[in-house]
Structure formats: structure tokens, C-alpha cells
């Protein structure tokens, strides 16, 4: 079974209330080959919400207690991101996910790039909190573009 970010399946759950629909993923959902989830909603956020970025590190640093996730206003939302990541991990284990496709650049879901924490739109190499936790537990996580290129 494939686990995917809800926004990639067309659900308007991104921080700004938008989706990031990928037609191939939408087809997987219709064919019951994939399950959707949004770690940020699982953690307790609502849509829309303030943008957030990882400060002083990447997702694995957040998991290890060495970095924080902060909203644009300065509010520390690290615990919500960690909670959502653990709930996503539970789902991945429950469905025995073989591949996990998550939204690139997200502080939760980024698999290759995240924003640098300065809220200036600058991306750096790194992964989000959920991706880091899932990979730490042995799951294969990729971005929507990696998935489309490989068409698993």
C-alpha cells in the first residue's frame, strides 16, 4: 500500500488552504492503491494556518530535540509537528506502507528540500519532521516529483 500526503490527492489542506493535486496520485486513491494523510492535520492544525519553518536544522534535528518548528509570528509549534509525525508513523505501520509520497518543501513532508527558516522563500537540502521520522523507522519516502519520475 502507498501512503500519500492528502494535499497531493487534491485535498485543500496545505497551510494556505490550497491543494497540490497530482493526477497519478488521484488515480491511485480512486483505485484503492493508496491511503491519504496529512501529518499537520493529524498533529492538530487547522486549514488555513500560519506558514512554519524549521529553525536551525532539519527534520531529524527536530526529532532529536536540536531544532524547532516556528510559525511566521514566532510561535513555537514543534510539538504539533512531532505529534503529527508520530501519528503518520502509526498509519504507515498499520497499512504496511511500501512507499510513502509526501509534499516537497514542507516542514513536515519535505524529502529533499525544506525552507531555511528565515521565511524568505529560500530552500535548503533537508527533510521535514515526518519524513525524518518515517525514514528513521525504515520507510521509503519520496517527493511527488520523484514518484512521478519513477511511477511506482
Automatic annotation (TrEMBL):
Family matches, as InterPro entries: 2-thiour_desulf
Domain of life: Bacteria
Protein name: DUF523 domain-containing protein
Species per Swiss-Prot/TrEMBL record: Priestia megaterium (Bacillus megaterium)
Lineage, broadest ranks: Bacteria, Bacillati, Bacillota, Bacilli, Bacillales
